[in-house]
Amino acid sequence: MTNFSSSIDRVFSASRRAGRLVTILLLPVLLAAPATRAAQAVKTGQFVFPRLQFTVYDESVDIWNSSPGGDVNLRSKIQELTNINVSQDPKVVHLADLEELSRYPFVFMMSEGFFKLPEQEEKNLREFLERGGFIYADDCVFRGEDRFFKCYIELINKLFPGNPMRKIPYDHEIFHCYYDFPTGAPHMQGVPNGAYGLFEPGTGRLMTVVTPGDEHCGWCNSFFSPEKNRQSIEFGVNIIIYFLTH
pTM, whole model, 2 decimals? Predict the structure, then answer.
């Protein structure tokens, strides 16, 4: 798969220069630090789809910043297929910066290789989820393997001992809330493990979801059949709608 790490700074630079930080205030989500500057004031009622930058030690080609065009396509399709007021501005948030991360209740995380986070990033990730944030993580798939998928599950299980991630049952609403997926998450390539989730004790709300099948590459509309690409987009829409309604 083509790596866009050399161009992602250009793709996301406009958002950084503008300094426009947007989030959804209609959700039971995160509280930013009170010292937030005026230039970082939020826009209400607008959904933002940020990419999460995190520490990657693996030397795989496709790391956290691969193929930002997939994000662009998904945002465009969300606007086309639903009435969600979605920002089309690209945005990167940094796992090392909890204050910044806390302004975005939803983030997208992806890579294709093994990874191990520094202690501070691990603490921030746990804090983010405990405050009500949601992470959708997707394995970019390296040589048909499930490296990122396995590492992500190991990480979450470490951070939430006693509440391990488990396979999301096919009758769960995330597979049926807008588009219907009777057999779970669509699979583009890689190991067909199925989607796994971390369920919040007491409420059953999904706090984070990880897929092994390279949904993001389907969003790119370049690597798979038109039918697979469509399915990946539709499942992306389901994830967003699930998040917005929980």
Answer: 0.80
